[in-house]
Amino acid sequence: MKQQRGMARHERWAVGLLAIWVWLSWGMGAWSAPLCRDPLLLRQILAALGRPEVKVEEVALFDPDQCLVQLVLDRQGLSGSLPPEIGQFRRLRALSLSHNQLSGPLPPELGQLSQLENLFLDYNEFSSSIPSELGQLRNLRGLFLDHNQLSGPIPPQLGQLRHLENLILQNNRLSGTLPGQLGQMSSLKGLFLDRNQLSGPIPPQLGQLRHLENLYLSDNRLSGSLPPELAQLNQLRDLRLARNQFTGELPTFLAELPRLERLHIEGNPGLCLPAALSEWFAGLNPADPLPAPICSWTPSR
Q1: What are the CB-based long-range contacts (under 8 Å, 24+) for 250-257?
Q2: pTM for the whole thing?
């Protein structure tokens, strides 16, 4: 009987040891995530872009798990199209590929970079449209796609980027109207859409951008009058509306914007300057002549 009890205790002890070993093994597996394959993937991408000789340690930062967190490849002579595998760097926070010869469409897989905070793809030769998947980058603070050959409309999904501070799309071939959803980007400070082919009116929803400091809309085909909702842009410093098709009187609420320092309205044949604003406008641009005629309309009696 004693021998049986001893054997039973031994079995329970053995089972207990086995349970502890299983628990420790599981815990070690849970806490020790497998290393990322990002360094190998990056070398493959560099080869696809024609620069396999680039030293990875000089252009990339990795976390302790060897996951890529920052990649800066400005002025590296990259060419060809951006591989869709770029979307596999799931911990990437900053991606800069400026001043290269990259071409072709922007891969929609960029929308998989959920940790991305800054995306610099400016001064390249990207064409086609802006993928709507970029609206999934909820941590994004800066989106720089300027000086490319992008065409088509601005995706309304970009309005989902509530942390975005700068949206820079200037010097492209974008067309269509300005989506009102851009007014949902509540952190936006700079909206740079000049030198495109955008048309239609300024959506009143842009008046919701309470932190906006710079609004660049020059050199497009925008039309209509300025919406009164823009009077809510109390942080606005620089407003550029030159060389469009705006009509009517320049609204007097512009003189009440407390921080406005620069206003460009030249090149809008249908736009006129109320006499009450002429002295104020001359103070903004003391070295320049008035860029619009004084409005001749007077109220009927």
Answers
A1: 250/226, 250/274, 250/277, 250/281, 250/292, 251/225, 251/226, 252/276, 252/277, 253/228, 254/226, 254/230, 255/280, 256/231, 257/231, 257/233
A2: 0.85
